[in-house]
């Protein structure tokens, strides 16, 4: 998985927040997009911020820790957010309701009104991984008013990451026009 250099023509700057429960794979996903390689991660206390160049968009991605005590701080990273990436550990069905509740609570924030939501159904390489359609149902996305999309992914291999960014890029561009 690498981003094609020919696709990198930065015309647009945008801010995206990446949130999700702890151990969902947010940081692995961010650095897979940024560096096209897997890096060793530790639980994020606070945040990581990186710029990811894709197509003609320069995404500033705020990867915010997912531990329970950090989640109330997520909303402080939503100012000027033009896209929300919500990462789910598809291999952890025991926590999918917690993830759904957290997502719906976040979507009540004024700063996220109308913002497109990209859900990465991550860890698809693992044996108990829920399908994208099962994740869609479990997250109760049919009740979400703003644009949303669920993309199966594996942050370790990079599978599905470009497809997700394609959707998010298109939605952000539509919102700007």
From TrEMBL:
PANTHER family: ADP RIBOSYLATION FACTOR-RELATED. GO terms for biological process: establishment of cell polarity. One of its GO terms (molecular function) is GTPase activity. Mg(2+) binds at residues 27, 44. It holds the Pfam family Arf. Belongs to the small GTPase superfamily. Arf family. It comes from Fundulus heteroclitus. The keyword Nucleotide-binding applies. This is ADP-ribosylation factor-like protein 14.
């Amino acid at each position: 998985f690498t981003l094609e250099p020919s696709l990198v023509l930065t015309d647009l700057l945008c801010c995206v927040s990446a949130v999700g429960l702890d151990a969902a794979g947010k940081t692995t996903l961010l650095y897979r997009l940024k560096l096209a390689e897997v890096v060793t991660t530790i639980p994020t206390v606070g945040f990581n911020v990186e710029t990811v160049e894709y197509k003609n968009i320069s995404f500033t991605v705020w990867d915010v820790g997912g531990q329970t005590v950090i989640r109330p701080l997520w909303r402080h990273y939503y100012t000027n957010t033009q896209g929300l990436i919500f990462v789910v550990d598809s291999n952890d069905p025991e926590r999918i309701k917690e993830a759904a509740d957290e997502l719906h609570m976040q979507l009540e924030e004024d700063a996220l009104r109308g913002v497109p939501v990209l859900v990465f159904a991550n860890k698809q390489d693992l044996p108990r991984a829920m399908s994208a359609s099962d994740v869609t149902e479990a997250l109760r996305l049919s009740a979400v008013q703003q644009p949303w999309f669920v993309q199966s992914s594996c942050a370790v291999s990079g599978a599905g990451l470009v497809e997700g960014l394609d959707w998010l890029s298109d939605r952000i561009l539509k919102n700007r026009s």
